[in-house]
Design a protein that fits this description.
Largest sheet: 6 strands, mixed
Mean pLDDT: 93
Low-confidence stretches: none
Radius of gyration: 14 Å
CATH class: Alpha Beta
CATH topology: Mannitol-specific EII, Chain A
CATH architecture: 3-Layer(aba) Sandwich
Distance between the termini: 8 Å
Strand content: 15-25%
Helix content: 25-40%
Number of helices: 5
Shape: globular
């Protein structure tokens, strides 16, 4: 599955203000909750925080991929948030996070979930892509960066 199939410009925010990991996950949850009427902010936030209790989704280099499974969705959905200032996120490298790609998948789509996460990890390991995402000034610009890499 291509990243372009699960994210659109209306699911991307630039220069979002958050003062903590919790605040960043709240902003991401609100954004995703607005994508489908069957989704609630609380359900998404609880899904993300439950996953974080298993281990941080902070990959390192200022990037996190909060993710989880939900019963009420039929296809993967995603959102991307570029924070104005990086926040402590308990990432593997102990560096603060300023780029978050939130991913929700249907409860039973294990293989697809892992494939998308692998594609994202590969994309976020590219220094040029990450630099463009940090420098992006609009949702459209960030969308083009996220989707032009065949991830």
């Amino acid at each position: 599955m291509q990243i372009s199939e699960i994210i659109s410009a209306d699911m991307i925010r630039c220069s979002v203000q958050a003062s903590s990991k919790k605040g960043a996950l709240e902003e991401l949850s609100k954004l995703l909750a607005g994508s489908e009427s069957s989704l609630s902010y609380t359900e998404i936030f609880d899904c993300f925080t439950s996953r974080e209790r298993l281990g941080s989704t902070g990959l390192g280099n200022g990037i996190a991929i909060p993710h989880g499974r939900l019963k009420h969705i039929n296809a993967p959905i995603a959102a991307f948030v570029q924070l104005e200032k990086a926040v402590d996120y308990d990432a593997v490298d102990q560096k603060p996070v300023d780029l978050l790609f939130g991913l929700l998948v249907p409860e039973d789509s294990t293989d697809e979930h892992l494939q998308i996460l692998a594609s994202l990890a590969t994309m976020f390991s590219d220094h040029d892509i990450v630099s463009k995402l940090r420098a992006g000034q609009s949702a459209q610009e960030l969308l083009e960066t996220l989707t032009s890499n065949k991830a």
